[in-house]
Amino acid sequence: MVSCDVEFETIFRILRIKCHLASKRVFFFFVFFGCIGSSLLCADFFWLQRVGTTLRYSAQSAHCSGFSCFGARALVTGSDASGPDPQLAVTMGFTGFGKKARTFDLEAMFEQTRRTAVERSRKTLEAREKEEEMNREKELRRQSEDLEPTSSGSNVARDCSKSSSRDTSSSESEASSESSDDELIGPPLPLKMAEEPVNHMEEDILGPLPPPLGEDVEEEEDDDDDDDSEEEENPVQKIPDSHEITLKHGTKTVSALGLDPSGARLVTGGYDYDVKFWDFAGMDASFKAFRSLQPCECHQIKSLQYSNTGDMILVVSGSSQAKVIDRDGFEVMECIKGDQYIVDMANTKGHTAMLHTGSWHPKIKGEFMTCSNDATVRTWEVENPKKQKSVFKPRTMQGKKVIPTTCTYSRDGNLIAAACQNGSIQIWDRNLTVHPKFHYKQAHDPGTDTSCVTFSYDGNVLASRGGDDTLKLWDIRQFNKPLFSASGLPTMFPMTDCCFSPDDKLIVTGTSVQRGCGSGKLVFFERRTFQRVYEIDITDASVVRCLWHPKLNQIMVGTGNGLAKVYYDPNKSQRGAKLCVVKTQRKAKQAETLTQDYIITPHALPMFREPRQRSTRKQLEKDRLDPLKSHKPEPPVAGPGRGGRVGTHGGTLSSYIVKNIALDKTDDSNPREAILRHAKAAEDNPYWVSPAYSKTQPKTMFAQVESDDEEAKNEPEWKKRKI
C-alpha cells in the first residue's frame, strides 16, 4: 500500500527550504513581495494536497476490483481519523482518506523571518563596531610601542587579551549556531540537506573577515599597508628617473616628439628638417634610428603625433600644409593650401599661413586639427584632403582677429581649446564653431606665445604653459580664474611642453637656458597643492619637449642640443627602453673588396667598345702570349752609350760635379750696385739719351712732384668733391 506520508514529508521539506531561504532576504523584500509569495505557497500546497489525494485513491484501488476487495485495508482510528470531506465526496465520490494534512501559519512564518533578518543585521553591525574598536586599539598600541620600548608585562597582557578574545569568539560562534538551529521552522532535514544552509550562511556574512590572531602576521600586514599608503600618498616615488638612455637626433633643437599608443616606436623631429624613427624592440645598445626622412623639405618640424590607432603620424611643419604619413614614413595625405587673397578665412579650403601645431581626435579615427598664423583653427579628415571639415576663428573681446599659437582636444573629444597671442584661452564645443564656450582673456601676458595647453586624464583640469615663464592650472567647470600659477620657469621656444602624469597627480614641464649658462631642468609640480616637488637636470641645453607615456611609464625629453633622452625605472617601467639596453651592439661587417664597374654596350662601335671582363688568371695567361707585354725591359746603360742608346749623364763623380756647376746660374749680386757700376761711364760718355737733348735742353731738368693739396686747389669748382 502506498502511503501519503511520503508526499507530506516532501511538502514539509519544500516548505522548510523555502522558509529558510526566504529568511535570508531583507525585510523590505518580504513586505513588497509578501502577497505574491503567500499566493504561490498556497497554490503549491493545494496542488500537492490534490496529488496526495489522487495517489491515496490509486493505492486503495490497487487492492480492489469492481465487485469487492481482495485484501485487507488498514483501519484508521484514534486521532488520525477525520470526518467526511464534502469537497472530496463531490470530486472523488467518497468521503476521505482518514488523515488530514498539516496546516501552516504563513503570517507567523514571515514574522519569524523578519525577526531573524533584523537579528542578523544587528549582529553584523556589532561585529563591525567591534572590529573598528580593535583596529583603534591596535593603532594606539603601535603608537605607544613607537614611544616606549615594549615590556614583558605588556606582552603577557596582550596574550591574555588574545586568549580572552579567542574564548569570546568561540562562545559567540556557539551561541550563533544554537540560535540558528532554534530559528529553523518545521521538522528536521536530513544531514546532507542540513549541511547546505550552513555554507550559505557563511557565504552571506557581510563585512570584512576578522583580523588574524597571530601577532607577527598583524605586524607584517600593517607594515605592508603603511608602505603602500606611503607610496600612494607620495607621487614622487612613482617618477621613473633611475636610468636613462640618449638618442642622438642631430645637432639642432629637437622640436617634436611622438610615441605610438603601444609604446613600440618613437618619432623625433627637429629644426634640421629631419624626422627619425626609433624602434625600441629593434634597436640595440648603439641606439640608432632605423629610418630618417624629410617629409616637408626645408621646413622646420613643429609637431609630431601618432593617431589613436597608431597607424598614422600627423606632421606639422613651418609650411601652411600639414601632412599625414604612415608608420614607415610614406605619405598618406597632404592638406590643401587656401587662397591667401580671400579676406574671410572661413571661405578658403585650407590654411594660408605658417602652421603652429596639430592634434588628433582622441575618439574619431582619421580626424585631426591644426592651427595657423591665418588666425584659424581647422579640423580635417584623412579621407578628404581637398577641404577642411570645420573652421574656428578666435577673436578678441573687440571682435578682431587673433593668432592661435597652440590647440588641443579634450580627453573625450567634445571640446577644442586654443591659446592665442593676446594671452587668452578659448574653448569651443566641437559641434559649435561660432562662439566659444569658455573664454578667459588674460590667461597669460599679451604678446607672448603660449606654447602648450593640455587636459588632464579626468577631463576637468586644463594646464597651460605660457610664454611669460609661467605654468597655470585651470578648472573648466569654473573657468573664471586659475586654480594655481607657478612662475620662474623660463622658456625660449614656442613649443615648450607640459603634461600630466599617468595617475593625474603630477604636472611636468621643462625650462630653457642660454648656451653655457646652466642646464635645462624637468620640473614636477603636485596637482593638488601645485608645489614644486621634484627636478631633474637634463643637460646643458634647454628642455623643449616632454612626454610621459601612460603604458610604458617612461618620460621622453627633447632638448635644444639635438638629443632625445628617455628616462625609465626597471622596476616601475614596462618595455620601451628596457628592451634595447639589454642588447649588445652588433659588430660591423667590413667587406674589403675593390671592384671595377663594367659597362656592357654590345652595339657600340669597335673603337668605343670595352673588352669583355675576364678573370685574373685568364687575363695573366693572355698577357703572357702577347710579345710586347711579355718582353723583359732592358737594363739601364752604364758608362758611355752604345747600340743607339745614350749613356747616363753624371754617372761618375767628375761628370756629376761638372753637371751641377754648369747648371748653377744663380746671380747673387745686388742689382742696384750692378746698375750704379755703369753710372760714371754713362755720365762721361753718354750714348743714348743725353745726345738727343744736347742742343734743345743742355741742362737737365727733372719734373717737380706736386702735392695733392695743390692739385685740388687748381681744379675748377665744378670738379671739386662736395662733402
UniProtKB/TrEMBL annotation:
Compositional bias (Acidic residues): 215-234
Annotated keywords: Acetylation, Isopeptide bond, Membrane, Phosphoprotein, Repeat, Transmembrane, Transmembrane helix, Ubl conjugation, WD repeat
SUPFAM superfamilies: WD40 repeat-like
Residue numbers spanned by region Disordered: 117-191, 203-241, 609-649, 700-723
Biased composition (Basic and acidic residues): 117-145, 609-634, 713-723
WD repeat start and end residues: 247-279, 348-390, 453-477
Keyword Cell membrane: no
A cellular component term, taken from the record's GO annotations: nucleus
GO MF terms held by the record: enzyme binding
Transmembrane segments: 26-48
Compositional bias per record (Low complexity), positions renumbered to this chain: 166-178
SMART domains: WD40
Keyword Ubl conjugation listed: yes
Ranges of biased composition (kind: Gly residues): 640-649
Family to which the UniProt record says this protein belongs: Belongs to the WD repeat GAD-1 family.
Protein name (record): WD repeat-containing protein 70
